[in-house]
Amino acid sequence: MNRDQSEQPRASVQPQAVRRVVLPSGRTIEVVHFSDAQADDRVLCDCPACGSDLVQPLAWSQTADGRWNLLLECPNCRRSEAGTFTRTQVERLEDHLDDGLTAMITELQQLTQANLVAAVERFVRALEADQILPEDF
Ligand SMILES: [Zn+2]
Fold it and tell me: What is the rounded average pLDDT of the residues 33-37?
């Protein structure tokens, strides 16, 4: 099936301005500002530089008109940008972050259960081999 050109991924937008900011940790980041028109339909969790979907907000504040000023950073390539985004964009980012947190908690629960099962199996083998003595407690 041929795809219409409009369905192709968009080329990355050109930054409006770039400046360096020193964070309280002492780390210096490069902040890329985009115009509002360019930012309106972007999916904020997607990094335009490396394609990672792990972009996270570092700082945020609400504007008087209900939009959000965000400082975003990609943990994969360390690209940072600041911009003003719509409520819908921020809600989609929040949903994506919530999904990521749910996935991490699920993985943690599975890993914890697997570690517990392994510990119980080691304990049973030690009991069967008479390697556990009353002095051990
Ligand atoms: Zn990136």
Answer: 57
